[in-house]
Design brief:
The complex is a heterodimer of chains A (about 250) and B (about 280).
Chain A (H helix, E strand, L loop, with lengths): L1 E12 L6 E12 L3 E5 L6 H8 L6 E7 L2 E2 L7 H6 E4 L13 H11 L5 H11 L16 H13 L5 E5 L7 H18 L2 E6 L2 H7 L2 E6 L2 E7 H5 L6 H10 L3
Helix pairs in contact in A: 3-4, 5-6
Chain B lengths: L3 E12 L2 E13 L3 E5 L6 H8 L8 E3 L2 E4 L2 E2 L5 H10 L1 E4 L3 H4 L6 H12 L4 H14 L5 H6 L7 H13 L5 E5 L7 H18 L2 E6 L2 H7 L2 E6 L2 E7 L9 H8 L18 H5 L8
Parallel strand pairs in B: 3-9, 3-10, 7-8, 8-9
Antiparallel strand pairs in B: 1-2, 1-4, 1-5, 5-6, 10-11
Family (chain B): Belongs to the ABC transporter superfamily.
Organism (chain B): Litoreibacter roseus
Pfam families (chain B): ABC_tran, oligo_HPY
């Protein structure tokens, strides 16, 4: 059964002469429990798809459905945010600089309507491998990897089924990237999460995802399984070239 | 031939908790080669590049027994002479062209200014040189680019323009600090091959600072691996994958690989002894 269904999605910015078509009739489906990658160069529209799903990009047409329920416009109801959550690229920019970890997670839990906030904050910190001693720290007292763990904990607060990951490790060192990717693997197993991961790093997508879509100039040029990626059997010349440029050897 | 020799370089920052040593007594030399410096954030690799040009802001301090450019000790030079060294002898390309180009000047003006700072000559000659340099970095539509402002350029174009600007005074050494980290993979290759051609054709020395081990192993001749302000290992770039030091091995193993899928990536186990071990001498 498909958890996320995107059909003939168009996203644009501006209008009239200034209109930019960021995504042009993109279609893909992601099954429950699957991890799906979106790869392409900057400006290819991969992050814009995530932003349209979450309602951050207002102008879109086509069909997006989550677990069978269609979305419309830019407004999302509370149940949507309990199903779908997003983790952003830059852990330095996505946390409020003057809120402690406790405030960040506590407020999120409150908005999701939970009562046992104290216990849940402790549990969330535990789940992302931080532990209670990080609870009353401010973002500037955390390293990049620790901040990304807080951002992941915040996304998990509402117990979502789908995590949208927008370049979750590209701002981090490789050793820290390995820790975060391992954490995501564990969380996916423990909570049966569905991932949609945007990345420009094919090795990271190849490591995390089962299938991926290659995007160019707002269009999905090819959807392939990870085996195809590993065996260098991309069919579309652009995805073959992208693969060529990314693989060292 | 040795272009640059660095002996016992320290970069120190006084803090409320005492002095913080960002670079701790490293020695290396650079010939007409491509030397890579790799390490994680905070390992001191960027500070090393900046210290050579004496670009560490106060209260930061640079101390060294010697930083010699073709035998001339840069540490003894007054600031006036140092300004001539910057650009003319040693140029630097930084990570993000968005922050290195002047946003309110056209690209043409900036290239011409760079030429006139280092050469006497007419504006027409300056413009001619600017066009030649744009050619050297594979920019074909000169007229449009010269008239354009930095925000009208993509990241890849911006970085090529930065490189073109650095080449105008014809330096002996180019220090490239993460020159492609802000760029897409496909553009990354183009920029690297441009730098590669220039270094080879002009017989320049290149210091290539990066966190990307694969990129460095492919692109450089020799690699210094830095950890906590010290050089922990030096090796030929081609043999980087056979590196011995546990830190280097740990970094290599933490990379996801398309050809060797596995469920969990190896996590780097740090050892305090790495930071305490004396720095490896990377002089040839």
């Amino acid at each position: 059964m498909s958890m996320l269904d995107v059909e003939d999605l168009n996203v644009w910015f501006g209008d009239g002469r200034d209109r930019v078509d960021a995504v042009k009739s993109a279609s893909f489906t992601v099954a429950a429990g699957e991890s799906f990658g979106l790869v392409g160069e900057s400006g290819s529209g991969k992050s814009t798809i995530l932003r349209a799903i979450t309602g951050l990009a207002r102008n879109w047409s086509g069909r997006i459905s989550i677990d069978g329920a269609s979305l419309s416009g830019a407004k999302r109801d509370r149940s949507f945010y309990k199903t779908v959550q997003m983790v952003f690229q830059d852990p330095y920019a996505s946390l409020h600089p003057r809120h402690t970890v406790d405030q960040v997670l506590g407020e999120t839990l409150h908005l999701h309507g939970f009562r046992d906030i104290d216990a849940r904050v402790a549990k969330l910190l535990d789940d992302v491998g931080l532990g209670n001693r990080f609870r009353f720290r401010y973002p500037h007292q955390l390293s990049g990897g620790q901040r990304q763990r807080v951002a992941i904990a915040r996304a998990l607060a509402g117990e979502p089924d789908i995590l949208l990951l927008d370049e979750p490790t590209s701002a981090l060192d490789v050793s820290v990237q390995a820790e975060i990717l391992n954490l995501l693997t564990d969380l996916r197993d423990a909570r049966q999460l569905t991932f949609v991961m945007v990345s420009h790093d094919l090795a990271v997508v190849g490591h995390m995802c089962d299938r991926l879509a290659v995007m160019k100039d707002g269009e999905v040029v090819e959807i392939m399984g990870v085996e195809t990626l590993r065996n260098h059997q991309a069919i579309h010349p652009y995805s073959a070239a992208l693969l060529e440029a990314s693989v060292v050897g | 031939m040795t272009l640059l020799e660095v002996e016992n370089l320290w970069v120190k920052f006084p803090t409320r908790q005492g002095t913080f040593d960002a670079v701790r007594g490293i020695s290396f030399s650079l010939g007409r080669e491509r030397l890579g410096i790799v390490g994680e954030s905070g390992s001191g690799k960027s500070m090393t590049g900046r210290a050579i040009l004496r670009l560490i802001r106060k209260p930061g301090m640079v101390e060294a027994d010697r930083i010699a450019l073709e035998g001339r000790n840069l540490l003894d030079l007054p600031e006036r002479d140092m300004r001539k060294v910057r650009g003319q002898d040693i140029s630097m390309v930084m990570q993000d062209p968005k922050f290195s180009l002047n946003p309110v000047m056209t690209i043409g003006e900036q290239l011409i200014e760079a030429y006139q700072l280092h050469n006497k000559g007419s504006r027409a000659a300056a413009r001619q040189t600017a066009i030649e340099m744009l050619d050297a970095v594979s920019i074909r539509d000169h007229d449009r680019v010269l008239r354009a402002y930095p925000h009208e350029m993509s990241g890849g174009m911006g970085q090529r323009i930065m490189i073109a600007m650095m080449l105008i005074p014809n330096p002996k050494i180019l220090i490239a600090d993460e020159p492609t980290s802000a760029l897409d993979v496909s553009v990354q290759r183009q920029i690297l091959s441009i730098i590669d051609d220039l270094v080879r054709d002009r017989g320049m020395g290149l210091i290539f600072i990066s966190h990307d081990l694969n990129l460095v192993s492919e692109f450089c001749d020799r690699v210094l691996i830095m950890y906590a302000g010290r050089i922990v290992e030096v090796c030929d770039a081609a043999n980087l994958h056979d590196a011995k030091h546990p830190y280097t091995r740990g970094l290599l193993n933490s990379l996801p690989r398309l050809d060797a899928p596995r469920k969990y990536l190896d996590v780097l186990q740090r050892d305090d002894a790495w930071a305490d071990a004396p720095s490896v001498d990377a002089r040839t």
